[in-house]
Predict the structure.
Amino acid sequence: MSKKVIDLLNEARSRELTAITQYMAQHYELEDQDFGKLASKFKEVAITEMKHAEQLAERILFLKGVPTSKPDADAKKGQTIQEMLTTNIGLEAGAIKMYNEAVLLCQSEKDQKSKDIFESLLGDEEEHLNYFENTKDHVDKLGPAYLATLTGK
Ligand SMILES: [Fe+2]
Ligand SMILES: [Fe+2]
């Protein structure tokens, strides 16, 4: 099986590990600031990314590769809610771009199963991007009135 595909799966796994660390860090900060509703949504997204990281690792192992345990960036701390959302939009958009390219590469390497994994991840990342974009849009347009609806449990 192709080393190219293993490298691609590991590059994706590094992105997932970054997203997990980032969304969890935000989740703790938001919880601390009493934005409980926003925090639980971020936690939910982080858990989906954990499943992605795991799915990628399983495929890498199956292909006799070694799953990386290194995120490709450090989590940003101390951001405002708008900054957090901008960070997350960047992570999701970057993943979508890379996974779309990965689908094509898996196809040219004739690796249908890895291609299926990237396609299924893409469905989730598009949902995440949409959620972060909509939320940022609401915060930008409605400000404190909208933020108030994201507090508490
Ligand atoms: Fe993901
Ligand atoms: Fe995502």
Residues 2 and 16 are 21 Å apart (CA to CA). The mean pLDDT is 97. Residues 16, 19, 49, 52, 95, 121, 124-125 surround fe (ii) ion (ligand 1) (CB under 6 Å).
